[in-house]
Write a structure and sequence with these properties.
The chain has helices at 3-17, 21-34, 43-51, 87-93, 109-117, 131-137, 165-175, 196-219, and strands at residues 55-59, 79-84, 100-103, 121-125, 145-148, 157-158, 180-184, 224-227, 233-235. It has 246 residues and is of the alpha/beta class. A hairpin with a 5-residue loop joins strand 8 and strand 9 (233-235). Helix 7 (165-175) packs parallel to helix 8 (196-219).
Length: 246
């Protein structure tokens, strides 16, 4: 999806959460300075080289879902994995190395560094609240990186839509030419946070994540399906988007 189409959706998100765009810009500029020179060159093209023309399984971190059972995929399918932040640890624990990791650095970051060392391209997202994490962790990644942010694309930073790591990964797959997007372990109704305030904020963000995926399902190019634990697939819509975890 082009940024011009996504921007009005993000304006609604910024208004709902009170995100200050000046903080987003500052974080984006910081990320640009922290990324090594190769990571600032053609980020979208480099991600696209890994996803274009393939069935992309986007792995979320729904409670108790676990890693995707790839042995159930049809033989001969050109499939690749994209892990959303904390789902990276689940993948590595099952011996799966994602082709791409999408993260804003609020999950188990050492597992993302480990995946990067083993060949994952890590797309690091800058936003107004994660400048300390950017400073702490970006220099530790030893492999291929790309950067993203929530404003107009820059030469060194991409933005093709999406809000949370999971839906942002789906937008990236669609924009770069995936033939099909398969959602595993997406759940917009249950979270692991126990503190009431954190739980409420997380659920609020997930409502916008679901809305973002609804928008992509209507406007995107690749079909989106939900992969259920029993091996069946159903077309994505707001009513069945949590089915992959039950």
């Amino acid at each position: 999806m082009e940024y011009s189409e996504w921007a009005p959706e993000y304006e609604r998100i910024r208004a709902a959460f009170g995100f200050e765009f000046s903080r987003e810009e500052a974080a984006a500029s910081l990320l640009e300075t922290l990324l090594p020179e190769p990571a600032r060159v053609d980020p979208l093209a480099r991600v696209g080289a890994r996803l274009a023309g393939r069935e992309v399984i986007v792995v979320g971190l729904a409670p108790r879902a676990g890693p995707p059972p790839l042995w159930r995929r049809r033989a001969g399918t050109d499939t690749t994995l994209v892990a959303a932040d904390g789902a990276t640890a689940e993948c590595l624990a099952a011996g799966l190395v994602p082709s791409v990791v999408v993260t804003d650095l609020d999950g188990p970051i050492p597992s993302e560094v480990a995946a990067n060392r083993r060949g994952s391209l890590v797309v690091i997202h800058a936003h107004g609240d994660n400048a300390p994490a950017l400073r702490r962790w970006v220099p530790d990644f030893p492999g291929e990186l790309a950067g993203s942010w929530a404003g107009p694309p820059r030469p060194a930073l991409l933005d093709v839509g999406g809000f949370t790591d999971g839906d942002r990964a789906a937008y990236l797959a669609d924009h770069t030419g995936a033939t099909k997007i398969v959602l595993w372990a997406f759940d917009f109704e249950r979270v692991d946070e126990s503190a009431p305030a954190e739980q409420a904020r997380k659920l609020s963000k997930l409502r916008f994540a679901r809305r973002a995926l609804d928008h992509l399902a209507r406007r995107g190019r690749a079909p989106i399906v939900v992969w259920r634990p029993d091996g069946t697939e159903v077309p994505y819509d707001a009513g069945n988007s949590v089915a992959s975890t039950r």
